[in-house]
Structures are given as C-alpha cells and as structure tokens.
Design a protein that fits this description.
heterodimer, A: 252 residues, Rossmann fold, six-stranded mixed β-sheet, four-stranded antiparallel β-sheet, 9 helices, globular, B: mainly alpha, 12 helices, flat
Chain lengths: 252, 268
C-alpha cells in the first residue's frame, strides 16, 4: 500500500439547466500517508463523492494533480481499489469469482486466484458463501464481499464511497468493527467517504471536513485501537471528537 | 367449500409432481367448451368440427407422413432463418449499443424498418425473388432481426454503469469488460429479444408459407382450405400452438432460469 497525494485538485462542470459553470471542488490539497486511514465527511453537496470519483478516475478532474506512490494518475486503474455504496458485485459471478476477478484480470492462474479468493473470504468470515451468487446474500454479506474483492487485488489505495450507508444499523456497526480489524491486520491506505460523523471518528486516524468544495479542517483521531463500539460508546474522548467534527460539519 | 379445497390441494400436489400436467390441465375446460358448442350444432359440422374429428384427421395426416414432413420443413426454415437473423442481429446490437454515435444514426432507421411488418415486404419480395426459399428466408431473417437488435441495444445500454467502473478499478481492459460485464449484463434482454424474434418469425413463416409455400404447416392449412377440410386447418392451428409451447418451455425458459433468474436480474 502506498501514499496518496492530492495537489490543488479542482473540478468545474457546466450545468446545462442553469447555463453556468459550477465549481464542485475549488482547490483541494491533501496527503494520505502510506498505511493511513482518512475519512472524508461533509454535508451533502460538499463534493466528497466527486473527490472520490476523481481519485478513482471515474470522472476527469479539471485542475491539479493526483499522485499515487508518486505517480500521477488519470483514469481508473487497479492501483486504486474501490468499494461502492451499491456494492457493485457482478450478479452473474459467484462470491468466489467476484473476489477472484482482480487477480484474473492480472493474469493470475485459476488455482492461484481461487486460493487468493478463499483466503480473503475466510478473513471476512464468508467461506461458507463462496459458491453462492450475490443476490442470495444479505446486504451486509454483499458489502463484505465488496470490501475483500477490492483488497484481494492488492491496491495501493483503497477508496470507499459510503460503503455502509445502505445496510441496517446493527449490521453497519459489525461491518465497521470488522473493517477496523482488517485495517489493523493489513494496514491498507484508506480514503473513506461518509456523511456519518460517528462512523468517521470510529474508523479513521484522521477526519477531513469538506465544505462547499473546500477543505475546512483536518482532525486527528488518536483514539486507541482496537476500537469496538461497546467501549467507545461511553468513551469521553470519542464523544468530544465526534462533537468537534459534528460542529465543523454543521458550521459548513 | 371443503371438498373444493381438498380437490385444489390435490391439484397443486399433482402439478408439483408432474409439472407437464400443469400446462395441459388449463386446456380441459377449453376443449369441453369446444365440444359443447359443437354438440349444440349451432354451426354445420363441416364448418366447425369437434375435437374427435380433428384428432382423427391429425392421426390420418401423421399416418400418411404429411404432417411430420411439413412440420420438419417449417421448423428447418425457421431455424435457418432465425440462426441467420441472430448471427446478424446480436453483433449489430452489440455494436450499436456500445457506440453512442452509431446508436444516434441507426436508431431512427431501425424504428422505421421495424414498422414495415414482415408481411408488408412480401409483395415486393415476390417480384424480386419469386415464389421460393429466398423470399421465405428473407422474411424470417427480417422479422427476427429487429426484436433481437433492439433488445440487445437496450440490454447493453442498461447495464449498471457502476459494474463497469468496478471492473475498471479491478484492472479489466475494454475487451474484458465487454465479455465479463457488458454481455452477461445484457443477456436477459438479449434472450427477451430472441423470444420475441422467434415468436414473430414463426408467425411470419406461416404467413409466408400460405402465400409462397409449396410445403410446411402454413401451406398445409391453406391447401386444406382449397379442399374444404376444416379439420385439417384446425390440426394446423393446434400444431402451431403446441410447437411454440415446446420451443418456449423446453428451450427459452430453461435458459432464462439458468441465467437472469439465477442471478436475480429478472424475477422468477
């Protein structure tokens, strides 16, 4: 896993209904160190998904540079793994085939990529579901597949776009705890987009607050790990940090 | 109510055991109604034969070998025409579906020619190619082509764009995305196109055989009209229905169950 640097990133697009240029992202600079976990929060419309889509290469940037491991990138690539809010699993592939997809595209042989997939599925506690199709799984299980599918391809940076927004509250807490466990084990470089302040503080080492296309603040989260909800719910540091970030988001 | 419910439960268990029965049983009241109308003698027997008369006629035609010969001719014509139609239509649909410029240019043309029904081509085709296989094949290919092209285009264009993004982020090249994502995603629509295409093609073939034919089920029916044999016409109609049911339930439906329904793309 390698570092991610955004230099004066900008995005303007033409709004055909208003007939004007809209500045979605004005001038955003951010460094995510190798092995760091950064969460990006902000009110809806602040451009956080646009930032992720630019890093992923799904939408072209209109200014600035994006560097992954000191290489400038444009367009999507396997160095930046993406976990989608809608899971985006391939419905016609089994869970194992979904996880093995990245290695398959890299030309890894059949036996080896099945082994890689099974290793990651075990990590996510999904070994029993390897031969099932995504539509046979619950939302929480589908997103576990989404996470390990991205990880199994060994990306330099893992980009997560509100990945737990569409699962129920209990499952979400479980998934958050599993993600911190996996992050502590493997130390991937993560950029995590969310509108949920509690989620951002719980998961990240650093929370970045965006407002109207600008970086409003960076808040370091020095809570001890491993983090579990049962203890953090009553933790005063967690509450203070959450309140601090919440105030920033609401002031935006 | 009790005996009715018992009977209904019995029916449900039977049809689970023998699914083929579930397809036959709805016809029982239909045939009963038919027999009843014949029994009332509202129409002369020559105009409206009963199920028994038709069955005897069907046996006679089978015994003479005419029915199977004609059926074979029709099925071969449909298969050849449909295969050629698909071989043209699916690649064309993929190309138009992937290329928005091609889509823009070709869509009005496709809609225009789709509107000129298969049979509307027959007069001009008869002048160009005469009464023969070329005319019939042209009509079937033409009829199969449009539903398959239009549905393939629709399928390709309606694949969830997030899936393409996911594949790109996992390192898939453009050709890999086509084969791993776009085509499987479009498959349910392509199958719908095939189903419609074959259905329309089958009807077009019967029409063509009536006008052009020297053999085939359509010819059998039209020839029977000349001989004044209503039984034979009805035999032809029933064969058409049965054959389509077989194509649909033995070929198309299993493909759908194994693909779109299994993947949760279409509800079962």
């Amino acid at each position: 896993m390698k570092s991610l640097v955004l230099e004066h990133l900008a995005k303007t697009y033409f709004d055909p209904y208003r007939g004007t240029q809209v500045e979605a992202i004005k001038d955003l600079s951010l460094t995510v160190e190798e092995g760091d976990f950064v969460a990006v929060v902000g009110p809806s419309g602040c451009g956080k998904t646009t930032v992720l889509n630019m890093i992923a290469g799904f939408v072209p940037k209109t200014g600035g540079r994006i560097l992954v491991d000191d290489r400038e990138v444009s367009g999507p690539g396997p160095d930046r793994g993406v976990v989608f809010q809608s899971f985006a699993l391939f419905p016609w592939k089994t869970v194992r085939e979904n996880v093995a997809f990245g290695p398959k595209m890299r030309g890894v042989g059949k036996v080896e990529r099945a082994r890689i997939a099974d290793e990651y599925l075990e990590m996510a506690g999904l070994s029993h579901a390897a031969d099932r199709y995504p539509n046979e799984l619950s939302g929480g299980m589908q997103q576990r597949v989404g996470v390990v599918r991205a990880l199994a391809n060994n990306p330099d940076v893992l980009l997560m776009d509100e990945p737990f927004a569409s699962v129920d509250a209990q499952t979400r807490m479980t998934l958050q705890e599993e993600l911190t466990r996996i992050w502590e084990e493997r130390r991937p470089t993560v950029v995590f987009i969310t509108h949920d302040v509690g989620e951002a503080v719980f998961l990240a080492n650093k929370v970045v607050v965006l407002a109207r296309g600008n970086l409003l603040a960076e808040v370091d989260i020095s809570l001890p790990r491993p983090r579990v909800w049962d203890s953090l719910v009553h933790d005063n540091d967690f509450k203070d940090l959450s309140n601090q970030v919440l105030q920033l988001v609401r002031s935006a | 109510m009790r005996p009715l419910q018992t009977l209904w439960g019995y029916y449900i268990r039977m049809t689970i055991k023998w699914p083929g029965l579930a397809a036959l049983i709805p016809f029982i009241p239909l045939i009963a109604l038919w027999s009843f109308v014949v029994w009332l003698e509202l129409f002369p027997r020559v105009f409206l034969p009963g199920p028994g008369d038709v069955l005897i006629k069907a046996w006679e035609l089978l015994y003479k070998g005419i029915l199977l010969d004609y059926l074979g001719d029709s099925v071969v014509r449909l298969s050849v025409g449909a295969a050629a139609g698909m071989a043209l239509a699916i690649p064309l649909g993929i190309f138009i579906g992937l290329n928005s410029r091609a889509h823009e240019v070709s869509w009005p043309i496709l809609l225009f020619f789709q509107a000129i029904g298969d049979i509307a081509w027959l007069p001009i085709l008869l002048i160009w190619f005469g009464f023969g296989l070329t005319t019939m094949t042209f009509v079937i290919v033409y009829t199969v082509l449009f539903p398959v092209v239009l549905n393939t285009v629709l399928g390709i264009r309606s694949v969830n764009p997030e899936l393409r993004r996911a594949a790109q982020s996992l390192g898939a090249s453009r050709p890999r995305i086509l084969f791993e994502v776009t085509l499987p995603g479009a498959l349910p629509n392509i199958i719908t196109g095939l189903r419609n295409g074959l259905g329309y093609g089958w009807r077009a073939l019967i029409a063509a055989e009536i006008i052009v034919g020297t053999s085939g089920i359509g010819f059998l029916m039209f020839d029977a009209r000349r001989a004044g044999s209503v039984e034979e016409i009805v035999v032809g109609m029933i064969v058409l229905g049965i054959l389509w049911y077989i194509v649909d339930s033995w070929i198309l439906a299993p493909i759908e169950r194994a693909t779109g329904q299994r993947w949760g793309l279409v509800s079962s």
